[in-house]
Amino acid sequence: MKRTLVGLISLASGVALFTGCLTTEEGAYLPMNTTVNNVENVAGFVLLSRAAQNSLTCPGIQEMRLPDGRLQVEAQARNRENRRLQVQVDCVFKDAQGFTVEETPFINLFVDENAQESARFVSANDKPVRYTIRIREAR
């Protein structure tokens, strides 16, 4: 009885082991939902959290080339709430194809009630053509 039971268990696990390697998928597949959560690739200003989205807006972005070719970007952040906000802001400088050339560290920005504050970023070289300014909640 024991030999038969051990034999059946061994046979069943062997069959399960070998059939687990069988696959019916073939070839390469295209990615799905490529336009979902793609805002950072098309917008100059993005909010990285739902709380920031409800609290802040960007009434304007100013960009200019400095005499040495570097890109300078300044964004205004407007607080829409009746409380003081602390957020963190950074800038991702990109080339013409949208690939990251340089990313600045996040800096703290304090925005008083119903007020506006500016954050200015300057690229390290003349390679950036595009940019994305990102704001997240300060933790």
Biggest β-sheet description:
5 strands, mixed
Number of domains: 1
Task: Kindly provide the name of the CATH class.
Answer: Mainly Beta
The percent of residues in helical segments reads: 10-25%
> What is the SS-derived class?
alpha+beta
In percent, how much strand structure appears in the residues? 35-45%
What oligomeric arrangement do these chains adopt? Answer: single chain
CATH architecture: Sandwich
Describe what you observe in this structure:
With about 140 residues, the protein is of the alpha+beta class. It has one domain (about 40-135): Sandwich (Immunoglobulin-like). Helices cover about 15% and strands about 40% of the residues. The chain has two helices and eight strands, in the order H-E-H-E-E-E-E-E-E-E. The chain has helices spanning about 1-20, 50-55, and strands at about 45, 55-65, 70-80, 85-95, 100-105, 105-110, 115-120, 130-135. The strands form two sheets. Strands 1, 4, 5, 6 and 8 form a five-stranded mixed sheet that branches. Strand 2 (about 55-65) and strand 3 (about 70-80) form a beta hairpin. The chain starts with a helix and ends with a strand.
